Amino acid sequence: MMGSRQLEYFRAVARELHFTRAAEALQIAQPALSQQIRKLERQLGIALFERNNHRVELTPAGSALLEHAERILSDIAAVEDEMRGWAEGTRGRIRLGGARGLTARLARLLAEFSREYPAIDVELREMNTEEMVAGLHAGRLDAATVVRLPPQEEGRRLDSLPLGEEPLVLITSESAPLASRYRVPVPVLDGTDLVCYPPGSVIREIVLSALADAGATARIRFETREYSTARAMASVGLAAAVVPRSVAEEPGQPVGVVRLDPEPVWAPSLAWPAGRRPGPALAAFIDFMAGRPDLVSAGPWPALGDK
């Protein structure tokens, strides 16, 4: 039978695709690592890697095993963390995925959480929703602030806690014609140059869906993963951008902020694997998030004055 040590060796080589680097990461001799991988392949009766003088690649069977190995090793680590938590009180580690646009509120939240639970370490990784969902399934993340769960995930493979919702607004340069408007219909954006976000971003899906529903087609002139970059381009008039309201109102390069009609919204949620009981650290974090909506949502946004 495969042991966890064999899976750790296999995972290291699969991640590095290089036996010497994997051996260095594991702090073992490279010949011993190669021997363990050959032994695992003999046990399974299949090749897990394709090797030649220049590179190492996973076989299809190796790719399938890597998915299982990530999940199994994550489960083992979670069990160890949970047992330490029960033995030593509420302590442990949470690997948290964070949606772009929630950084400021997450910082406030995590500072408060750390004061209440100083023995729990939270590692925050900023990702888009597609990356976070994949990380939760692969065991690379314990929880994530996803923007919108795919319908097939919610309540089945992932549990979730709503964190409120926030409108998306249009930002432009202050001298752009639209900047003088308080609210504009979405069809007005037909043919407008836009800064947008890469595939996998739920904000991108929301924006493109709102345009399609209005019969509008904007020209995506620039693509970026960062709201700060979208704001910079909008500020100098290269293109308009659609961002969460809180992002538009953060200090930074000056922009005109315009409401859209109908107003698209994003609705972040805290998500975690449904098939795994949260350990003490994650359970404390979920309860903390549920009990402090004022830290998650900034409440009603102040009305924009008429222009």
Tell me the layout of helices and strands.
Elements: H1 4-16, H2 19-26, H3 30-44, E1 49-51, E2 56-58, H4 60-88, E3 92-99, H5 103-116, E4 120-127, H6 129-138, E5 143-146, E6 158-162, E7 166-172, E8 183-185, E9 193-196, H7 202-213, E10 219-223, H8 227-235, E11 240-244, H9 245-248, E12 256-261, E13 265-266, E14 269-273, H10 280-291, H11 293-296
Helix pairs in contact: 1-2, 1-4
Give a brief description.
This protein has 307 residues and is α/β, with parallel strands linked by helices. The chain has eleven helices and 14 strands. Strands 7, 8, 9, 10, 11, 12 and 13 form a seven-stranded mixed sheet that branches.
The total of helices stands at: 11
Shape: globular
Q: How does the helix and strand content classify structurally?
A: alpha/beta
Give me the count of strands.
Answer: 14
Q: Topology as H/E string?
A: HHHEEHEHEHEEEEEHEHEHEEEHH
What is the distance, rounded to the nearest whole angstrom, between the alpha carbons of the first and last residues?
Answer: 71 Å
* Helix percent band: 40-55%
The overall pLDDT average reads 86
* Rg calculated over all Cα atoms: 23 Å
In terms of per-residue confidence, which ranges show pLDDT below 50 for 5 or more consecutive residues? Answer: none
Strand content: 15-25%
Describe the main β-sheet briefly: 7 strands, mixed
Task: Write up this protein.
α1 (4-16) packs across α4. The protein is 42% helix and 22% strand. It is built from eleven helices and 14 strands. It is globular, with a radius of gyration of 23 Å. Strands 7, 8, 9, 10, 11, 12 and 13 form a seven-stranded mixed sheet that branches. A five-stranded mixed sheet has the order 4-3-5-14-6, sandwiched between helices. The protein has a two-stranded antiparallel sheet with strand order 1-2.
